[in-house]
Amino acid sequence: MLKKMSTLGLVLLLAFSPVATIAAETIEEDSTDETDQTTLDETTDTEEATEEPGEGEETSKSDEATSEEENAVEEDDNNAEAENEAEEAEANATDNATEEETTANEGAEEEESATEEEENDDADEELNLRDVFGNASGEIKYDFNKGYYVLHLRAGITNFHTNQEIKDKWVAFTLPNGVYMSDEGEIPSGVVRIGIAGKSGLAVKIPDVKSSGSETVTLDIPLAGVEDDNDPHLNMYLLDVDVNAGSYEEIGQLRGQRKIDFSVMTDPVELDLHGSITGKTEFDEDKGYHFLNVTVKAENQTDDNVKDVYVAFDLPEDVRVITNEHSPSNVTGIRKDDGGRAVALKLPELPQGDEKEVTYRIPVVGVSKAVVESNTIPVYRITDSGYTDIGEFEGYVKVDFSDMDVEWKFAAKSEIITDYPGLSGNEFGFRFNYEVKNINLDDVEKVELEFVVPNDIKIQKPVYNDSLGNADISWKGNTARVTLGDLEGASGWKGYFTATGTSSKSLNQLKDLDVTVTLYRDGETIVKTIKAPFVFGTYDDDGFGDDDGNDDNGTGGDNGTGGDNGNGGNKGGTGDNGKGSTNDGGGTGSDDNSGGDVKVTVDGGDDSSNDSKVTVGSSDSDKGGNLPKTATNTYTMLLIGFIVVVAGGSLMFFRKKGTIN
Fold first, then answer.
1. Tens digit of pLDDT for each residue in 51-82?
2. Range of the domain at 436
3. What is the domain count for the chain?
């Protein structure tokens, strides 16, 4: 019984202690040997007792043996049952120990595998992102001097976990649809474009964040575009970024949201400036074109100093700006996206909070009734390569072109040349000057001039020959017809021609006479008729020089001055540019052909000859300048002309839109 109790205690010990398992095996082996031995001895004694009983004692011993045998059998049964239970307990204990050892080995392998994976993946799966917050905030402002929006970004990570660090990571957020990082500005280091959550976005490198720590970076991000997003995405993300490979891996979503107001980005940009553009045109009689006097006022209420920017107003289709020596600096033309033209005026430098005014006097050409008005003023940045839009601000624009109603600049001047060479007796030399400018922008066909000399003078009929072939002149009696041909818009002619004639009047009497000059367009349509009274002039004048107003410049009467040109008819002579003489022969001198290969002949004073023609030489001179002098070896009939631009310059170049870096 005691053995049975010991065996049961041993079983319980083995079942609950791996160490005891080994001891149990040893004890059980000893117990088994002892039991076997014990069983084996008891069986031998029984057999011996059975084989040698005494006769008298046979029944008694038999009963005793039977009783002992039954006890032994019972004990053997009990021992066998205990042994079975012990063996079963031992087997269970062994199985449990083996299972625990297997479980321990598997746990160690898993732990080793997890360690290796942690080393390979930088332990990203171990980051507890529930305790990590991401943030992206900042203010967006337009930078005048850079020409784009700037996001003053604060981005960072806050790690509330007490037992983890975040190393070599990037925080990311989306941009609204329609907004993007501008290529015009400098992209700071540590910022990359990404696509995340189905939108474009930015990733920002964050310094290593310690446990229970926080790190933030501050950057200026150039932005462009306008927010157009009805499904905003505000979440923050943690990334691994391989800049060299141009790839990234999303680790997970962080707590926290993007807090940036993109609604301040508008197109056009709304600038915190205030001011006005006002102007009006006036016609300059001397120069023969209009000037636009325009004044710009501007007040800077932005947070920046304003410099190197232009404001602009639209230019009517029938008006052009002229570039010449009278054009002010800091005025230029631009061609807008819609094909229209505008005049851009540079603002003076405006410190923050300052207000200034500047006035420009701009030569313009055209005919218009337009008044340009607007409630907004556009602002541009302009370089040699083009212009870029900066934005606009609320303001007042009123530029009045309605006074541009003068279509033609037309002037004529009739001169009695007091020192005309080679004249004698009652002969006189005359010079007829003209200036015609088409101030309109439209081309005009068949422009002609008609000079009607009063009947008190009898023009000696000249014959003109010129190989340039740009214009012609014909005389019928005292009427000269000058054909200039087609005339482009904003261009014109300036020239003169000469003739000789006779009169019974003196020089002073001739000065009171007028030449009637008529301008025609389209052949026979009269544009304007003016009177050009005779004035005294000299041979070397350019035709449109000042009148000398001196009645004593020529001797008049029978003794005409000059050293060239006999009186025609019976008194032909030779010579050039000499002082000449009052006799029939004249003198000799040097030819002056500075006006080109002009060859002039006179039909010997025979009024019955056919009409004659002469061509007008052309020049690309922008300003006209002094007209060259030409004399010939016969009667000097001089004709020269210039094609000129109305304002003595060129039409303004209009810049196209471009990219400014």
1. 444 444 444 444 444 455 555 445 555 555 55
2. 408-645
3. 4
